[in-house]
Amino acid sequence: MTDQKNDTHISVEEFQKATEELYKKNLELVNLNKEIERLNGELGDANEKLKGLDKLKTEFVSLASHQLRSPLTAIKGYASMLMDGDYGEMTKEAKEAIDRMYQSSKNLTIVVEDLLNVTKIESGGMKFEMAPFDLSIIVEDEVKDFSIATEKKGLKLNFEKDSDTSFMVNGDKEKIRQIIINFIDNSVKYTKEGSVNVSVKNQNNKVVFCVKDTGMGMTEEVKDSLFQKFARGDGARMNTTGTGLGLYLAKQIVEAHKGRVWVESEGEGKGSAFFMELNATK
Amino acid sequence: MDTLTKLNIFNQMSLRIIKEQELVIGPMAWNEAKKVIGLTVDQQHSSISFSGDSKDVINRLIAQYERLFGKASHEVCRDAVQDMIKELKPEEIPSSLK
To answer: Best mutation site among A14, A22, A24, A27 for testing chain B: the one with the most B CBs within 10 Å?
Structure first.
C-alpha cells in the first residue's frame, strides 16, 4: 500500500515542470490555431479573387460568343446561297470549297453555342421550359433521323422500348432532345462496325435512356473524366471537331432535372453504353 | 503623455495580457488576474481598475502567470503588448516588459 502511494506521488517541482510543459504545448496549439486562421483568411481572399476572375471569364466568353454568332450566321447564309446558285453557276471545285466552308462554319456555330450554354448554365442563367412529355417518342424520332447516317457507315441501328409502360418525364423537351442527339451521334461517330442499340426503359419509376455501341470503348481513366469540362475521349481526340463540352453540358442539364448521366464500358475496344436517367412522371 | 492616458494604456495592457493568457489557459487567466493585488476585474471581464502604481500592478500580473506557468508565459505577456510598449517612454515601461 505504502509503495503504491509513493508511486503516484509527485513533487511540487515535478508538478511545476509538468504545468509549464502543458502551458508550452497549449501555446504551440494557440499559435498553430492563429496560423490556421491567418491561412484561412488568405484562402478566403484568394477564393474571392478567383470568383471575381471566374465571373470576368464568364462575361468574356459570353460576350465573345455573342459577337461571333452574328458574323457566323452571315457566313453560313452566304455559303448556303452560293451553294444554291443564287450568285450564278459555280465549278464543281468551287462548290466543294463552299461546302467545306459551310460545314466548318456549322461546326464553329456548335462550338459557340456550346460555350454560350456553358456560361449560361454556370452562371445560373439557363432557362428550362419544364413540361411533361414522352421521352420514348423523342428517342424514336431521333433514331429515325440517324438511320441514314448509320446505314451509310454499315452499322445496325436498333431501337427497343418496353410496351405498356409510361415513359413520361417532366423536363425541357428540346434540351433533353439535344442530349439524346449527342449520345447517339457520339456512338455512331466512334463505332466503325457492329451496331448501335438504343433503348428506353422504365425502371423503378425512373425512365432510363441508353445508347449502347460496339465501338472503341474506353479505359476507366477516360470514363471517370468524360463528363468533365473540355474532356475528350480517345476517339474525340482523333477527331478535329467537337469542344469537349457536349457531355459536360449533358450532365449539367440532366442534373438540373434531378436526373443523372453515366457511362459504362468493359474497356478499350469493348464498346460503351451511355445512360440518362430521369424521374418518371404521370 | 498625461496621467489619464497613461492609466488607460496600462489598463489596455493588462486586458491584452489577460486575454492572451486566456487563449492558452482558458478562464483560469481571469481567476489568476483577480488574485493580483491592486487589480480589480469586473464581472463581465470587460474593464479593469488599478489601485496603486500601475507599473507595479502590471509587474505583479506578469509574475502571477510566470510563477505558475514559467518563462513561456512571460514571453506571451511581452508579445501581447509589444506595440503598446513603443508608445511609452523607457522610464514608463514596467520592468518585466523591458
So the answer is: A27
H helices present in chain B, as ranges: 3-25, 28-34, 54-69, 71-80, 82-85
The string of pLDDT tens digits covering residues B56-69 is 999 999 999 999 99
pTM above 0.80, yes or no: no
> Taking CA atoms, what residue in A is nearest to B26?
A26
Which residues of chain A from 107 to 126 reach within 8 Å of chain B, CB to CB?
none
Q: Do B69 and A30 touch (CB under 8 A)?
A: no
Starting at the edge strand found earlier in the chain, the sheet holding A260-265 runs A156-161, A195-203, A206-213, A272-279, A260-265
Cell representation of residue A94: 468551287
B76: nearest CA partner in chain A: A27
Identify all chain B residues contacting A19, using CB atoms and an 8 Å cutoff: 68-70
Asked if residues B96 and B58 have their Cβ atoms less than 8 Å apart, the reply is yes
Q: Which chain A residues are within 8 Å of B72, Cβ to Cβ?
A: 20, 23-24, 27
User: C-alpha distances in angstroms, A268 versus A11, A223, A271?
Assistant: 73, 11, 7
Q: How many CB atoms lie within 10 A of CB B40?
A: 13
Q: With contact defined as beta carbons under 8 Å apart, do B71 and A27 qualify?
A: no
Does the pLDDT value for residue A4 go beyond 60? Answer: no
- Lowest-pLDDT range of A89-93, A133-137, A277-281: A89-93
Chain B positions with Cβ closer than 8 Å to A: 23-25, 68-73, 76
ipTM of the complex: 0.86
Cβ(A213)–Cβ(A271) below 8 Å: yes
Nearest residue in A to B67, CA atom: A16
**Which residue of chain B comes nearest to A34, CA vs CA?**
B23
CB-count burial class (<10 Å; 0-12, 13-18, 19+) for A43: exposed
Give yes or no for a contact between A169 and A207, defined as CB atoms under 8 angstroms apart: yes
Coil, strand, or helix at residue A239?
Answer: coil
